[in-house]
Design goal:
- By secondary structure, the chain is mostly helical.
- The chain has a domain of 168 residues.
- Helix content is 65%, strand content 8%.
- It has a three-stranded antiparallel β-sheet with strand order 7-8-9, with helices on both faces. A two-stranded antiparallel ribbon has the order 1-2. A two-stranded antiparallel sheet has the order 3-4.
- Helix 9 packs across helix 11, helix 9 runs parallel beside helix 12 and helix 11 packs across helix 14.
- The C terminus is likely disordered.
């Protein structure tokens, strides 16, 4: 007599038992279920267990992905203050919630608090645009006044300037030689131009150039502006020759590339570290990138810094406004 180890039925001999185990449906089903149970038990025995939520995984990679992405497991980790896992997460600057790198981009696109912030910003911009439209008429009046004032200045400029020329010539003759070798300029910009200067746009760049490049060891300016309206700058080169640099073209040609390179680096870093200031970052990077074609603020700042001893007066706050209106 033989007994089946799966269904416990008894048979007359081994041959009949084997035929039963191979063909009988209910016995085959019992065999299949047992084989599955054995496989599950083996898999469970070899599985890796999450120390936070107790869930099992086949590989360490699946475990690591689970611990960085599963919301219920992340909450358990935060409650247990798992520094290693928490340090690898990204915090949304709008809702302050933590996400894995793979999930953050999807969240960033749908974050409700971010959407509200952007909506509020758009509303503010619309209000400013409406206000700007109202100011257009007033601006037109001021522009007409500026045109009239400019015509008056041109009439005055036609008068003899002999005494002014004497004073300007004395100022220029006292300048010390200015070194604009490219290696020297590159080194100064690389060392002295900072993120704070970057956030000041062309004005910040002008202050760095004035303080560290065109000022000698005694603190005396090595360039001078004798005519702020026409952007007429002067310096003495290393050969002792007098250079008239209209619109600072020669100086800008030397400082533009190192400034643009450094500004681009700062813009890339700050866009990641300080995304809320993205508009200012782009605006300042653009102003430096376009310095060779739109140097207005850079030259006005240098004129103010280097034209103190000129016979021709510098732009005051009132006629600076007029000058801006004329340029636009």
């Amino acid at each position: 007599m033989e007994q089946c180890i799966f269904c416990s039925n008894i048979f007359g001999n081994t041959q009949i038992l084997k035929q039963h185990q191979k063909k009988t449906k209910y016995c085959l089903k019992i065999q299949e279920d047992k084989a599955k149970e054995d496989a599950d038990a083996k898999e469970k025995a070899n599985a890796i267990t999450c120390q936070f939520c107790g869930k099992h995984f086949k590989t360490k990679y699946l475990l690591s992905s689970h611990q960085k992405q599963a919301k219920y497991c992340l909450k358990i980790q935060e409650s247990q203050n798992s520094q290693e896992i928490i340090a690898s997460l990204v915090t949304c600057i709008f809702c302050k919630k933590n996400f894995s790198y793979s999930n953050f981009n999807r969240h960033d696109l749908t974050c409700k608090k971010k959407m509200k912030s952007l909506t509020d910003e758009i509303a503010i911009l619309k209000l400013k645009a409406e206000k700007a439209e109202k100011d257009v008429e007033i601006g037109s009046i001021y522009k007409n006044l500026a045109v009239s004032a400019h015509a008056t200045i041109e009439e005055i400029a036609k008068q003899p300037t002999y005494q002014k020329n004497i004073q300007n010539n004395l100022t220029i003759s006292n300048l010390t030689p200015l070194d604009l070798a490219q290696d020297h300029v590159d080194s100064i910009i690389d060392k002295k131009y900072t993120k704070n200067d970057f956030y000041e746009g062309q004005k910040g760049a002008a202050h760095v150039v004035y303080k560290y490049l065109v000022t000698d060891s005694n603190g005396k300016s090595q360039i001078v502006c004798t005519d702020t309206e026409r952007g007429k700058f002067h310096h003495i080169d290393v050969n002792g020759d007098h250079v008239v640099d209209y619109k600072n073209v020669h100086l800008i040609n030397r400082v533009h590339l190192p400034l643009k390179r450094k500004a681009g680096k700062f813009a890339a870093e700050e866009s990641v570290k300080n995304p809320s200031a993205f508009k200012d970052i782009i605006m300042n990077e653009s102003s430096i990138r376009e310095l060779d074609v739109k140097p207005g603020l850079f030259n006005r700042t240098l004129a103010q810094l280097t034209g103190k001893n000129c016979a021709k007066s510098l732009l005051t706050s009132s006629n600076l406004t007029e000058s801006l209106l004329l340029e636009n």
